[in-house]
Every structure is written in structure tokens, then in C-alpha cells.
Amino acid sequence: MPGKLKKSVSMSVIRRLPRYYRFTGELIEQGIVRISSGELAKRMAVTASQIRQDLNCFGGFGQQGYGYNLVELREEIGKILGVDQSYKTVLIGAGNLGAAIAAGMNFKKYGCELIGVFDSDPNKHGKKVAGFKIQGLEALGEFCKREAPDMAVLCTPKSAVHELADALISYGVKAFWNFGHYDLSLTHKDILVENVHLGDSIMTLTYEIRNN
Amino acid sequence: MPGKLKKSVSMSVIRRLPRYYRFTGELIEQGIVRISSGELAKRMAVTASQIRQDLNCFGGFGQQGYGYNLVELREEIGKILGVDQSYKTVLIGAGNLGAAIAAGMNFKKYGCELIGVFDSDPNKHGKKVAGFKIQGLEALGEFCKREAPDMAVLCTPKSAVHELADALISYGVKAFWNFGHYDLSLTHKDILVENVHLGDSIMTLTYEIRNN
Questions:
Q1: Are B136 and B120 contacting, i.e. CB atoms less than 8 angstroms apart?
Q2: B179 has a pLDDT exceeding 50
Q3: Which of A167, A202, B58, B83 could link B78 by a cystine bridge, Cβ 3.0 to 4.6 Å?
Q4: Contact A193/A185 with Cβ under 8 angstroms?
Q5: SS3 annotation, B78-100
């Protein structure tokens, strides 16, 4: 069982953890109770030694000759990922994508709780998205002081991200799930940023089409 | 100028290319005409030698003592990424996220052309998304035979991805931009897949919040 996490787990290991979490969930759904690192590796198309090394970063979970108890493994990975938490989350930018994320993303499943939706467009104010009345940005400061959100989802155009992040950081928000095509971590230090740059993603695919 | 691409450019280099494309665009918008690899590196928070190495994979662009001509560099990176192409694209799954992608994504900017939107839900058929009448999946085979799309955007639940990919591959589609939480490349070989797993992404952020 992992206790306090070791420091300095590399980002590449961390980025693989959600996939372990997904896969163990699928295997449990299939009625599988335990699995060897070799069998898990085969199903995930990675090497058994990578799985063992990755999980050892968090204290190790398997038992020699028995393999992994899937329910336990999944639960522990979930705790490491924070899905047992309830991080208060605000979403800024209720355009097409923002509204889709607000309405379609199962935040609770990932340890988050959506508590408010904001947009700069007065025509949207008072309309509902995912059960939340869209509020204006002028209400954001007061809201953050009262609710102290842990995380902000930024679904705004690139041009708005910089200023919004300034404001949110001054309100105490420290983590950003950023869909704006702006490299927040370049200008804002000491915050946690996870970028979803859809344009970068589709260009990786067009590269592959062009060069295959 | 890069001619025919060298083989075996690593995925990590390819994944950095869109960022170069974005950054050079921003610098040009700021009126900058040329830049040294050192200055570009500083702005992108990477090392100059990484920039030189990355771009050398494609034949090199800079000129000793002059640096990079930004307009030329961006144009060449764009060509390598295929943004000067017009890959025919179908989108399957017109739920919250699919509709947002169809309506909000500037496909043309990334060398793609949306040509049709499909959904399994009969209640959606005939309704319009991004100017396209949503069609039923039963029309997909005929449509693909006629239009020969290069790429499919999958915005369907995980459970539908496997079967849909089977069908689309049999219709000749070879590239998939996959928003379904299903590892398509594990079961379908010889296709190009770019995954956007939003759940994995948000869990990377909750990990950071939990462990910082």
C-alpha cells in the first residue's frame, strides 16, 4: 500500500497512471479479479517491466506469484490520482466547447465538483448550462472568495487566457485545465497547468496522414 | 527547405511541431520577422539545441548567423504538418462534445474539411450541426464510398468506438481522431489514431493538485 508519495515521479509515469486506472476498470467490468503484470502488459501493449517500474514509483502493489488484485490496485491508483477527492471547479467560457465540457464531463468521476460557470458575454448571463446559471466575470472575484475553488477550467479564446489566469491566481486558484491555445505555464509560474490543445492534437494526426 | 521527409522522426519530435507552428504564428503576429534559435528557445522555455535538433529532423531551416525567417519557417512546418492539405473529415457522434467540435473547431485551419456529421440517435437525424444535417449511421457506408473521407472524428461513448472503427476501416477510412475513451490502436492495427482522452487529462491535473 502506498503511503506518502515519493517525490520526483516523472511526468511520463504520471501521464501513464490514468491509463492504468481506465484499464483496471475495464478488466474489473469483465469480471477479472487478479492479473499478472505480464498479462496486464500484453493487454495494454506495454512491457511488464514498465508496469512494475511505474507502479513501484508509488510503493508497489503486486505480490510475487500472485499478481495484482485489480480492485485494490484500481482503488490505490485512484487515490494517487485524487479521484476520491472533491476538488471545487469553476468553468470559464460557456461557448460551444465550454458548454459541452460543463454538460458532458463527469467531473465527479474524476474527483472534481463543478460549482460555477462563467462567461464574459452578457447575452449568456442567467442562461443555464449543466444546471448552473452562467454568471458574468464581474462576479468571479466574490464567488472565488466565498467558494475557494481548487481548479479552473478555461474554455476561452487564447486572447482571454492570460488576463483571466492573472485574475484567478489573485483569487487563490492554483490549478488550471486549459483549453485555450495559450501556454499558461510560460507566463504564470507556481501554478499547475494541464493543457488540452485540440489544434495541436489534430495537427499530429494530419502529420501522420501526410507522412504515411 | 525540407524535401522528402526523413523516415523515423520520433513521436516526441512530431508532438512538438504543432507548438512551433503556434509559436511562430504568434511571433509573426507581433511583427517579428526573424529570430535566433536562442531567442526562440527562451520564449518557448526549451533549449536552443532542442529546437535545432527538432527542426534538423526535417532538413533544417535556419541560416548560421541569421537565424530563422519566421514566415518561411512557419510555412514549412505547416506543410510538414499537412495544414496546407484538405483532408476530408467525417464526425461521428453529435452529442455535447461532438456538436461542439463540429461547430467550434476550425478544421480548415488545420488542413481538414468537415464533410458530414453522423449520429446513431434517430431523434437527431435531420437536425443541423455546423451547417450539416445529422445523418444516421445506416447512411455512413454509402457516404464513405461516394466521398472517401480521409479522417473520422469519433465523439461517441467508449462502447461504440470498437464497432464504428470496424465499419469505418472497412469503408476505407485510415485515420481517427478519437475522443472515445477506448484504446483503438490496441485492437485495430494499420490505422492512424490520435486520442484525446479528456478523463486522462483531468486526472493528470488532479494528481498534481493532490501531490503538490
A1: yes
A2: yes
A3: B83
A4: yes
A5: HHHHCCCCCEEEEEECCCHHHHH
**Which B-chain residues 78-107 have CB contacts (< 8 A) with chain A?**
80-83, 85, 87, 95-97, 99-101, 103-105, 107
- Looking only at the bridges linking them, the beta strands covering A128-129 and A112-118 are unpaired
Give me the half-sphere count of Cα atoms (radius 13 Å) on the Cβ side of residue A171. Answer: 25
Q: Which residues of chain A lie closer than 8 angstroms to B95, CB-CB?
A: 104
CB atoms within 10 A of CB B175: 22
Q: What are the residues whose beta carbons fall under 8 Å from the beta carbon of B56, sequence distance 6 or more? A: none
One-letter amino acid for residue A9 of the chain: V
Q: Give, rounded to a whole angstrom, the gap between the first and last alpha carbons of chain B.
A: 45
Query: In B, which residues are within 8 Å of A212 by CB distance?
Result: 192
C-alpha cell of residue B3: 524535401
Beta partners for residue B195, in sequence order: B178
Angstrom CA distances, A91 to A35, A118, B114, stand at 39, 6, 28
CA distances from A146 to A153, A171, B113 (A): 18, 10, 45
pLDDT tens for A42-82 read 999 999 999 999 999 988 787 778 889 999 999 999 999 99
d(CA A9, CA A7): 6
Q: What's the CA gap between B175 and A80, in Å, rounded?
A: 34
pLDDT at residue A152 is higher than 70: yes
Q: What's the pLDDT at B65? A: 80
Kindly report the length of chain B.
212
Q: What is the pLDDT of residues A169-190, one digit of tens each?
A: 999 999 999 999 888 988 888 9
C-alpha cell at B91: 464526425
Q: Where are the alpha helices (DSSP H) in B88-139?
A: 96-104
- Identify which of B97, B175, B207 has the shortest CB distance to residue A17: B207
The neighbour count for residue B17, using CB atoms within 10 Å, is 22
